[in-house]
Amino acid sequence: MAYQNLISEIKENILYVTINREKALNALNKDTLAELADVIEFAKKTEQVRGVILTGAGEKAFVAGADIKEFSDYNGKQGEDLAKRGQDQVFNAIENSSKPFIAAINGFALGGGLELAMACHMRIASDNAKLGLPEVTLGLIPGYGGTQRLTQLVGKGKAIEMITTANMITASEAEKIGLVNGVVPQADLISKAEEIMNVIKQRAPLAISAAIKSVVAAVKNSDGYTVEIEEFGKCFETADFKEGVTAFIEKRKANFAGK
Ligand code: CO8
User: What InterPro entries does the entry give (predicted)?
Assistant: First the structure.
């Protein structure tokens, strides 16, 4: 498969997918999301693929979020559509996959990047990784399932703290609160993910699929996702959103007016 923004290859029944926009810290633009949707579908229908390891190119970032430059002039409807399409085709598609996805978090996992990692069934982080949901610094909230999946993984109190402060946490803090399954030196990241996947590969594929489906069903609250999409769309109508993204692009501190 030839992609513009992804590198993908199958080795020993594992599909390796690397998001490859290193200069933009692997930020998720529309094209990358479309390619991710395609590769997820490929994984689903290709019998040879028993599981997927997802990572980011380079040593600095897994994914630093949705591409802020692309959605800076969106209105509420466009924001809602983008969140809905992304959730359906990428984030929910990963979570609902019958084959396990492991996120190998090799650096910053922020905003949509952390949401992508949280949609995966497991997360291994390198010891230099930083994780966070900084959307409120842009006058937004997470729109790719982050308010739901972070709450499911770490509980309400910690989720609200992370989302409202927008503070990043280290890999070891993330491990302590259950946000990642393990932390290893960056050089060992992929081999750690492979170690887990190689064990799963020895188990019964249909049972793996049934197990994933059952565990995912235990934490699903589809109404919460709908609320998030609507609230996310509304953020695009605010002056604070315009100020937040303009400040990011102009590399200055945002001055929010609360409207
Ligand atoms: N989008 C676009 N470009 C980005 C992004 C991003 N999310 N993150 C980094 N970049 C670009 C920078 O603009 C910069 O480009 P250039 O060299 O052309 O100026 C390049 O990557 C390198 O970044 P920095 O120079 O900023 O690197 P630093 O080491 O100084 O800082 C940080 C690294 C801390 C990761 C910093 O880049 C940063 O804060 N990035 C933004 C993080 C962020 O706010 N992410 C959340 C985005 S919002 C989101 O994900 C919403 C999800 C839901 C969306 C639903 C549909 C829209």
Answer: ClpP/crotonase-like_dom_sf, Enoyl-CoA_hyd/isom_CS, Enoyl-CoA_hydra/iso, Enoyl-CoA_hydra_C
Q: Does the beta carbon of 66 sit less than 6 angstroms from any atom of ligand 1?
A: yes
Is 47 catalytic? The answer is no
Residue 65 CB–ligand 1 contact under 6 Å:
yes
Atom number of ligand 1 nearest to Cα 66: 50
Q: What is the CA radius of gyration of the chain?
A: 17
119 CA to centre of ligand 1 in angstroms: 20
Residue 195: active-site member? no
Inter-residue contact 173 to 180 (CB < 8 Å): no
Sheet holding 51-56, edge to edge: 6-11, 14-19, 51-56, 101-105, 122-126, 182-184
Substitution candidate for ligand 1 out of 32, 68, 144 with most atoms within 8 A of CB:
68
pTM of this structure:
0.94
* 169-170 sheet: strands from edge to edge: 61-63, 108-110, 130-132, 169-170
Q: What is the pLDDT of residues 83-142, one digit of tens each?
A: 999 999 999 999 999 999 999 999 999 999 999 999 999 999 999 999 999 999 999 999
DSSP secondary structure of 40-102: HHHHHH-TT--EEEEEESTTTEEE--B-HHHHTT--HHHHHHHHHHHIIIIIHHHHT-SS-EE
ipTM for this prediction: 0.98
The first and second tokens of residue 251, run together, are 């590399």
pLDDT in tens, 24-39: 999 999 999 999 999 9
